Amino acid sequence: MRPLVFAIALCLGAVAVPAEAAEATATKAVYGWAWSTGGTGIRLTPMAATYRRPLHTFKAIPGARELRLDYAKAAFRRVTVACDLKETEGQVALDRRGLGTTVCEPRDLTAELAAGPSAVRVEYLGTKAVKISEVLARRDDPRTTRGTVKRIDDTTVLFTGAGRTLKLGYTNLMTFGRTTRRCGDGWLAGKPVNANRHGLGKKPCQSRDFTEALKSVGHPVLVQVDYVPQVNELSGVREVFGDA
Questions:
Q1: Which pLDDT value is given to residue 17?
Q2: By C-alpha distance, which of 89, 96, 99 is closest to 134?
């Protein structure tokens, strides 16, 4: 009898999955604003989410760390009734949890992210997104404040102001007010011919001009920004002449 019991124990031990291994193969889910990092990459900082049909409300989680994931093979579900729509156009496709249900492809997410960040629920394993569900989320009104920005890459800056530092992203929809004569000038180049009496740039320029101007300096520069809290999106930047 003992040999039989011993043999059964060996068999059970052979198929048992250690807790660590089981945890390593379990998907995790987070909510947040997804930003494109190029190709099929996204970055997002996990946020707490509450749902009251039809909108989710996101709230920052203290100490949450940014995730970088690849969605090349992820399932993608949209809140629109068709994959190629930019807006809901008055019709939404949501399940009882407020998650998008329209079956789409990763390329549809790429197209959506090209226009700006997207509110999503992401199921992921390691560094791979398994399923991304679009949600409808509240967006706060932009806030206006002064501080400094330092370039991270062509679509992202570090903004320091009001005693804190934020990573802010921007798209080609962002406005840029310059103090310089031309949109393509270096940062604060020449006389402030387009500064108002408060030293703020008033020449209307585009986000690509902001990107190029930041490349001309390697240190933080003074600005006035309009940004959307929670989304951490820059909607407008104004060059500031001197310490005005």
A1: 45
A2: 99
What's the pLDDT score for residue 36?
Answer: 96
pLDDT at 218: 85
Q: Quote the CA–CA distance of 195 and 221 in Å, as a whole number.
A: 16
User: 173: which 2 tokens?
Assistant: 């929809």
Distances in Å between the alpha carbon of 174 and those of 2, 137, 171, 210, 229? 75, 20, 6, 9, 15
Instruction: Please say whether the dihedral angle defined by the alpha carbons of residues 121, 29, 63 and 48, taken in this order, is positive or negative.
Output: positive
Per-residue confidence (pLDDT) for residue 9, from 0 to 100: 40
User: What does the alpha-carbon distance between residue 87 and residue 7 come to, in Å, rounded to a whole number?
Assistant: 63
Quote the pLDDT of residue 163.
Answer: 87
Which residues touch 71 (CB under 8 Å, ≥6 apart)? 40, 41, 42, 106, 109, 129, 132
Low pLDDT (below 50) residues in the chain: 1-17, 19-23, 244
* Distance from C-alpha of 106 to C-alpha of 72, rounded to nearest angstrom: 6
Tokens of residue 89, six digits: 């156009």
